[in-house]
Amino acid sequence: MYANLIKDNFVKLTRMVAIGTAAASVTLVGIIPPTFAAPLAPSCIRITSQSSRSIRVNNTCGTQKRVKVVLAFAPDKACTAINPGQNTLSWRIGRFDRLESC
């Protein structure tokens, strides 16, 4: 009688530990940043203005740079060459998240 009770409790405890470990793993994966993310745009690429569907950038690097607009809630934009001076980058859906080098 006691052997069955101990066995049943052990099985329940083992399941709870397995579920807790799995839940903790999923939670940690969600907060660890991916190491394969592209680097941000160089500091000589500056965002001079921003609206809900576009950003205006100023390239003071002296050479052409390639950047990508990363959006939240929408696919990212393709890489775009930015010549020295001002450029406007726009999109239809999503929210601006960051500017990356590519």
TrEMBL record:
Give the Gene Ontology MF terms in alphabetical order.
Answer: alpha-amylase inhibitor activity
Stored InterPro entries? A-amylase_inhib_sf
Protein name (record): Uncharacterized protein
Name the source organism: Nostoc commune NIES-4072
High-level lineage:
Bacteria, Bacillati, Cyanobacteriota, Cyanophyceae, Nostocales
